[in-house]
Amino acid sequence: MGHSASSRIQEYIGDPIEDNAPVPAEKLEEIFQDIQSDIRFDHQLNGCLNCGICTATCPAAHYYDFSPREIVQLMWTENLDGIYDAMQEKIWSCAQCYTCAARCPFGNSPGGLVMLMREVAIKHGMESAKQVLRPFSRVMLKLISTGNQLSPDMINPDHFADWGPNISKIDAPLALLRKAIPMPTLNTTKTAWEVNLKTSVELYTIWEETGVLDQLETIDENLFDVICDLMDEKREDWEDFLEDQEDEDDE
Ligand code: SF4
Ligand code: SF4
Questions:
Q1: Which ligand is closest in space to the CA of residue 99?
Q2: Which ligand is closest to the CA of 105, given by its number?
Q3: Among 14, 104, 134, 196, which lies 20 to 30 A Cα-Cα from 20?
């Protein structure tokens, strides 16, 4: 009696020594449904022997408090609290190498499940997703505005302080080095390759239609605003180009 009464009270007020407020059951259910309803889910989870082969071969498990076996078990047993907890930190340790998927005797893909969990963490604007993705904002800016992921001028000591002293070896005369690469498209340091205006504008439509921009807005509103301004500018350039073409055709 005493135990159940204290459980009920705790359910209502939360754990007094826990910093975070308890997550409502409906929210946990919603998050799990979002993961489970993805079309990839059924291909990535077929059962689990709990054999641990995935964890034994997982590079991330060697260095972090992370286990693909644990992720699969959480999903298989529909442990909603555990799934939510794993989404706060553990899922961001996976290197997405898919060694686990190649080795699992059940044909599971723990790495694939991690990817689903990450996407849902972004969709729900979880703090863990915001923190993990924040350092990648300049890569996102480059990717969405130009179609390039990384350009040579981004690889410098200021941006890769965590690379240690060896970063100086690539802090070289980039423009000169790029000219040494035979393909003419690589003679640029501001982009990895040139993306023409039409392609950029088409990419913007893809980002919009696939919900990428909505996700970005959830995670980083400032970056979203900057990217929208850039997109507007390029779309105007494209419209101007088309009008010029029409004028030329009329002459
Ligand atoms: S996911 Fe596969 S490899 Fe990993 S514990 Fe389960 S059955 Fe074993
Ligand atoms: S994909 Fe992730 S979970 Fe699977 S082996 Fe690689 S690092 Fe480990």
A1: 2
A2: 1
A3: 134
Find out whether 146 and 194 touch, Cβ atoms under 8 Å. no
Q: Which two tokens stand for residue 213?
A: 């921009």
d(CA 113, CA 119): 10
More confident residue, 246 or 115: 115
Point out the ligand 2 atom lying closest to the alpha carbon of residue 112: 1
- The finding on whether 206 has its CB within 6 A of some atom of ligand 1 is no
CB atoms within 10 A of CB 4: 8
| CATH annotation of 22-124 | 1.10.1060.10
Q: What is the pTM for the complete model shown?
A: 0.78
51: how many CB neighbours lie within 10 A of its CB?
Answer: 13
The larger pLDDT score, comparing residue 250 to residue 5, is at 250
Q: Evaluate whether 110 touches 72 at the Cβ level (below 8 Å).
A: yes
Enclosing H/E stretch for 201: helix 197-209
Q: Is the CB of 114 under 6 A from ligand 1?
A: no
Residue span(s) of the chain under CATH 1.10.1060.10 come to: 22-124
